[in-house]
Specification:
This protein is an all-alpha fold. The chain has three helices and no strands.
Length: 72
């Protein structure tokens, strides 16, 4: 080839931070805290975080689900 056809094309930006995950012990401790939370929002918070953590659901999917349920 006489010329580089890729010259001038920029590479996509790469994420510099890797996601951080909770260990199983940390998750169990968090669930235990949620189960014993005395506030009125306890049930909502517990269900929301357990659903998020155990299904692999993305945050936006969870928000959309909660918003759509609340709108009906």
């Amino acid at each position: 080839m006489k010329s580089d056809f890729t010259a001038g094309i920029q590479a996509p930006k790469a994420d510099k931070k890797l996601p951080k995950y909770m260990t199983l012990q940390e998750l169990q401790k968090f669930f235990s805290y949620l189960e014993h939370d005395p506030r009125p929002q306890r049930i909502r918070n517990e269900l929301m975080f357990k659903l998020h953590a155990t299904t692999g659901m993305r945050r936006q999917e969870l928000v959309d689900l909660i918003f759509n349920m609340g709108a009906s």
